[in-house]
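Most newcomers find our protein records easier to grasp once they have seen one. To make this concrete, we reproduce a full record directly below:

…
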Amino acid sequence: MADLWLAVLLSLVEETLWSKFPGPAQTTSTTTTSRLLRFASCFALQYLIIKAYRHVVYPHFLSPLRHLPGPTDNYPLLGQFPRILTSPSPNEPFLTWSAKWPQSPFIRYLSLGNQETLLINTVDAHKEVLQTQCYAFKKPDLLFRLIGDVLGRGLVFSEGAEHRRQRRILMGLFSTPNLKALSPVFREKGGLMSRWFDDNLDEDGRGVFDLLPCYARMELDVVGRTVLGVELGNLKSADQKWDFAACYHRIFQPSTLTGLITFINGVVPIRNILPIEANLGYMRDVSQTRAMVTECVRQRMREVDETRVHHEAQSSGGPSDLLTLILEERQTFKGSEDELTEEEIVNQLLTFVVAGHETTVGTLVWSSYVLARNTRVQNKLRKEILDAIASKDGGSLAWEDIDRLQYLNDFVREVLRLYAPAVISYREAIKDLTICDTFVPKGTLLHFSVHLAGRSKATWGDDAEQFIPERWDNRQGEATSPYAFEAFSNGPRVCIGRGFALMNVKMYLVEMVRRFRFFESPEMKAWGDAGPPLLNPSFALMAKGGLNVGIERI
């Protein structure tokens, strides 16, 4: 858009000069039509020159980033974009480049339109971008166009002082006492999930399940209860025509055409001008989803009385959902700049729902896959869980008991190191700066690959690709840095709900591992060590065509 306006401005200047200082062959009686044609010609030429400079001359001949290592086998005007789009997985090109230049803080590659992008490649570079100079960057507009219409300007997309304000207000939501108050919901839903699987096994106590839809359906109820205090599976619009679960499913598991439109919208904003049903249906689903959550907030505001909320919080160990906690906190900021508006509350709640759901479901799916592939790890994890239950005389494990299970903790972290649900994230420099002795101009796009950080042999050693939970008890060198593990990001923008997500996953795993044995399905045996084919392009780590895992009653 900036290039368009620049071309318009230059063309207006040229037209003005042409009118004031006509050449010898130019008459003073130039018609309006001829002036418009002249302006259009100037505009087309100026725009072409600007684009040629921006996408050809600058990145190839003038950019101060040209000296950085990176792939050079680019497609004309497309850079590495076709290769990234058609690779076997959304991570493959970046892991290959990192292995080729393991010590370089940044790897430069060209993307669509020869957009210069810096792949963050070392622990020190991650620390500089995420911590030391965090607020020298912003989330680029392309990310907001991909999912911002659902989440709004909550913690994920707020910037600078506004992000600091929101984080300050919301940080206490995920305190240890509040997580403990939410744990009965995790335990209850974990029990319901294990019973569902048990009821759907065959007469021999065995079955093969595509785990993504199984976990997704059940986790939607968990985040509904813990975030909004409602069963999202039963949540409908005021006119009863719209179902939250159905809208959510269509938004985050879209048709091929809807997904393509979303992808294109990240590059070129077409969402609000494309009058086809695949796009209009998506926009209706987003609108209705936000409307249903807004109505939940309004209804709770009408119900909640400050004195009663405080009384219930004190008598029950804390409110059992985040919406109640937010409204309670809102009372303390009444009339101040820290009082959250209704829209801000809706944005935060949808952020918690989406982040909590997608992170937990993805982690559970890949945890189940790993358990089925690795009998040693599965047996060791089950023994730790059963020993802990035996120490409680067969009773259920409390929040504190599960938090103390060291091997379970190591197992979950190892799953997230190798199979973190989020695939990529980006930052854009909002000013010129220097990172790891590299000058980064304003406007430069920086690319985080969560899996690059987790699979780097320079950080994790030659066995970085192997699943070894025990490594977490004996980390050395750069592996001890928090910036070697990026599943929840780091620094001021670290996910404030990471404790929530981890406890949710752990309580599910305790229920499942104690009752069932995971085994390889025929598809898994056919894949072998190569693993399942992965969906690409994708913003989450997902198996193409689903991930079928065997489950057997113990």
About this structure: The chain is about 55% helix and 10% strand. The mean pLDDT is 90. The first helix runs from residue 2 to 20. The first strand starts at residue 106 and ends at 110.
